[in-house]
Amino acid sequence: MRPATALAAAVLLTLPALPAAAQEKPALPAGASAVVPLWAGGAPGFEARKDIPEQAESYWVKNVNNPSLTVFLPPKEKATGAAVILCPGGGFRELGFVPEGIEAARWFNSIGVAAFALKYRLPREPGSVFDMSHPRQDGLRAVRLVRHRAAEWGVDPKRIGMVGFSAGGEVVSMTAFGETAGDASATDPIDRVSGRPDFVVHIYPGPVGIPETLPADAPPAFLLVANDDGATRSVLRLFQAYRAARAPVEVHVFAKGAHAFNMGTRSKLATIKSWPQRLADWMADNNLLDPATPAPGVK
After folding, report:
1. Per-residue confidence band for 291, with pLDDT thresholds at 50, 70 and 90
2. Long-range contacts from 271-279, C-beta under 8 angstroms, 24+ separation
3. Domain at 29-285: CATH code
4. Domain locations in the chain?
5. What pLDDT is attached to residue 292?
6. How far is 42 from 165, CA to CA, in rounded Å?
7. Banded pLDDT at 11 (limits 50, 70, 90)
8. Which pLDDT value is given to residue 296?
9. Among the residues of the chain, which ranges form H helices?
10. Average pLDDT in the 71-80 region?
């Protein structure tokens, strides 16, 4: 070995080696504390796909094979104990994960609510191996996972809601309005926990998952849409179903705003810019932001 080569080898030997995972692990979004897969070994029946990388660019994420929650926890001195699972939209072809996951989570943290941004599987993405049962499976597992780890994350297990935008609203409907009971005989303790959200928030939702009728104990609902958006039909169907069941519901229909205005920050319309405050007011009125008061709907 020549002296120069030997010196280079000696220098390399003195440098600390970084684990491959540490070098490849993507940076967490600002404000997030962790990314937690819904299933440690991969989604049931699709375990071999769990290490296929996602595709992400600009505001969107695609190719979700290992569904997960990105965890955003509010400062302890601000935390109310309430939590939401955020379901971004994107037509089941992609996820608008930045505006309807990350940015939404930061807003919820600002009012003391823990937020868990869900990356669910996308059955309408070209070449997808998934069907519409899989986003529902992901939604149920997300609720169960947060409820199972509620103490660890400082969450009240009776104040866990779901928030869905567009197609994400369909994930909320499929999750909340179907069978949600845990399986007492399941080997996985997470699957023994109820997957029922304690409240639901639909922002310009799609029609999938909306039942013809609802029970009187349907989760309290907040519905919001712009009148110049086709999603008004879904909101009206939900509103009518809630009214018929005499279950608690609040609805807001703005004159303008179209579709996919996210958290309102990019709109020029005052009503759209301030829509999150309507949700904060509803959450306060339904006892969701005060840890000393009962669960939602209880007066």
Report:
1. confident
2. 272/226, 275/224, 276/107, 278/224, 278/252, 279/201, 279/222, 279/224
3. 3.40.50.1820
4. 29-285
5. 59
6. 25
7. very low
8. 54
9. 3-14, 20-24, 97, 103-110, 133-148, 150-153, 167-176, 232-245, 270-273, 275-285
10. 96
